[in-house]
Amino acid sequence: MNSIENAQPHMSLSPLGAGDLIDRAVRFYRKNFWTFVLISSPPVIVGTIFLVAWTTIGRSIFSLGSTSEMEVGIYRVFVALGNLFIWLIQMIATLVIMGGASRNFVRHLLYGEPITFRETYRNSVNRLWGLVGISTLISIICGIFGFFVFYVGVIIMTFGILAVTLLFQSFPIVAFIVGIIAAIAIIFGTLWVMFLLISRFVYFPQIMLVEGQGAFAAVSRSFAIENIYSDFRRRVSRLVGVDNHTTSRQDLANLVADRTEYSAGEIEAHLFKFEETMIGEPTGKKEIIELTGKLREVEKSLGLRRHGRKR
Question: Which of 18, 138, 218, 277 could bridge to 213 as Cys pair (CB 3.0-4.6 Å)?
């Protein structure tokens, strides 16, 4: 039997329901509310000052009372480009600070260290240029995805409302009610898709600070570990007939052990190692390969085959 590291019982993480998560989050934020406000304030305050200053400069350069449409148009373009640039810088600064705060947050959970303004900004300054680079990339990617998803949503909403209007043109009240419901559903769906896409990139600065990774190493590690582990849980949950999102690591390990030569403790230890790596445990390319190899052995024991492309 292949050996897999034994889990540490005191480190086992129990699944939490929505109520438990909300309760813990509310208590945590209430306890550290003013610290979080202080940490997040500088990018917001400085960005707002620059936005007001840029608008004031535009008003001093261009005459808004002018009858020239060209001058008014140039003023609007001037302000819009400035606001866009300042917003981008503000977004980058916010992501940099989030990266610094994540290291402080993890050390608070693991070692009880206090969450402070000073420690957060010290973490950010120590990895400043790497954080700025990855945060700039994230901001550009999020802007592109946001722009694309927004306009796709607008197009879908336009055609959806038009279809409802034509379908219920003999019943104006029904058309109005159905149109409102359809619009709300499309808006919700658009926001859900946009945040789903953004969530795939926005935590890269946290990986850099928590794991001490470089920018590109953080990106590759994040995608590799999360995709491999998520795919394994999804396929195994489907095989044993349980819900992937609500089944705990321990329960899934027991179900896998009933169908393979591995013990439940061995399976749970391996899953635990994957989860540790996903939330910030330092790792390297060699260890990722070893973890993946062991996971593939478990899949093989379960009869889950991966067929390559036929040439």
Answer: 218
Contacts of residue 40, Cβ cutoff 8 Å, sequence gap at least 6: 94, 97
Length of the chain: 311
Radius of gyration of the chain (CA): 25
206, 124 contact by CB (below 8 A): no
Question: How much is the average pLDDT of 261-270?
Answer: 83
Task: Using a cut of 0.90, tell me whether the model's pTM lies above it.
Answer: no
Cα–Cα distance for residue pair 71/65, rounded to 1 Å: 10
* CA separation for the pair 136, 296 (Å, rounded): 36
Closest CA to 295 of 241, 235, 245, 238: 235
Residue-wise pLDDT tens digits, 159-188:
988 888 888 888 888 888 888 998 899 999
Q: How far is it, in rounded angstroms, from Cα 84 to Cα 143?
A: 11
How far apart CA 57 and CA 59 sit, in angstroms, is 5
- State the number of CA atoms in the 13 A half-sphere of 131 facing the CB: 30
